[in-house]
UniProtKB/TrEMBL annotation:
It comes from the Bacteria. It comes from Streptomyces ardesiacus. The lineage of its organism: Bacteria, Bacillati, Actinomycetota, Actinomycetes, Kitasatosporales. This is LON peptidase substrate-binding domain-containing protein. SMART domains: LON. SUPFAM superfamilies: PUA domain-like.
Length: 246
């Protein structure tokens, strides 16, 4: 299978195809990555791969502190990810296309990227100023009954939205604003639900769209039931992800 080598941006969150990712980049390793991406002509995609962190820290320690004031400060592209970065990351990630990379006066960057396609991480290279990875494309198959499942997920998602809106005493997107293409539905709902990173990662690496939709249908019914019981359950905005600390 054809592979591609891209810069790696590990995060404590999961990026899905079609979803927007805002980043505030301040660590030197990622600033170096953005400077390299800026060398790509504007009419070509400025791509990097986002992988969720399995075991490690999104932001490297820059000074000793709690709970261990004697902890060693880490530097370099692998800081916070141990001696074998490949083991620190989930293997399925998402390619991101940086539509906007703006350098601030202090040398940090504001970045706005969009997830494009799933990839599987096969190796990590830490020899440069930032991590790069060898990645193979992970095609998205529809699976059986994806269309019917998408309809059911949308119905359940609307109920989930209503429950969250009640818990937050605010209104959310209406059903008319939601897509109906099964693959798009599966990724939007996966990104929009208030779930932990391991669960979102499981949805990202589903073998096909139908499997992801079935999983989401179970999750939506369960989460809606929980919210009904605990109406004060906190929730984040459903239509956008948080800005990374990096």
């Amino acid at each position: 299978m054809t592979t591609v080598r891209l810069p790696l941006f590990p995060l404590n969150s999961v990026l899905f195809p079609g979803l927007v990712l805002p980043l505030s980049v301040f660590e030197e390793r990622y600033r170096a990555m953005m400077r390299e991406l800026l060398k790509t002509p504007e009419d070509e995609p400025r791509r990097f791969a986002v992988v969720a962190i399995r075991d490690g820290h999104e932001v490297a320690r820059t000074a000793p502190g709690l709970p261990d004031p004697t902890a060693t400060v880490e530097h370099g592209p692998t800081a916070g990810f141990g001696t074998d970065p490949l083991k620190a990351f989930h293997k399925v990630g998402c390619v991101a296309d940086a539509a906007t990379i703006r350098e601030r006066a202090d040398g940090t960057f504001e970045v706005l990227a969009t997830g494009t396609s799933r990839v599987r991480l096969t190796s990590v290279d830490a020899s440069g100023p930032f991590l790069t990875g060898e990645l193979e494309p992970l095609p998205e198959e529809p699976g059986d009954e994806a269309g019917a499942l998408a309809e059911g997920v949308l119905r359940s998602f609307r109920q989930y939205q209503k429950r969250l809106a009640g818990a937050r005493e605010r209104s959310l997107a209406t059903g008319s604003e939601l897509p109906d293409e099964p693959g798009v539905v599966s990724y939007l709902v996966a990104a929009a639900m208030v779930l932990d990173t391991p669960t979102k990662q499981r949805l990202l690496q589903s073998p096909d769209t139908a499997s992801r939709l079935r999983d989401e249908l179970r999750l939506l019914r369960s989460e809606t039931s929980i919210i009904r019981t605990l109406p004060s359950l906190p929730a984040s905005d459903l239509t956008r992800g948080p800005t990374s600390l990096n």
